[in-house]
Predict the 3D structure of the following.
Amino acid sequence: MCIFCDKINRNNNLFETSKRIAFFDEHPVSKWHTLLIPKEHFDTYFDLPNSYIKTIDSAIKDVKKILDEKFQPDGYNIGFNCGEAAGQSIMHFHIHIIPRYKGDVKNPRGGIRGVIPNKQNY
């Protein structure tokens, strides 16, 4: 069983439905960094059936609403890694919902492009 499959049975979840679950990242890159996963095991986004893609999109919005109400972030980075070459270290599809706050980094320009640091500034 993978590390995320084990988390499905825990009670410290931010959000949960019959098909998906959200909880705070154990190694957050910002305050309230949240992971959203399907309860059924899929390795990457590309393995998800189309029916899951709709429920995941809806869940991203649900999690954002909860984070907005509780913590009032100024923005978000939302993304996922597919495969080891892209940085995926747990082979259970998961989405990072990363709240951002004004001033949390010196220059946020480029956002998600920062996964390859010399490509962030353009």
User: Anything to note?
Assistant: The chain has one domain: 16-105.
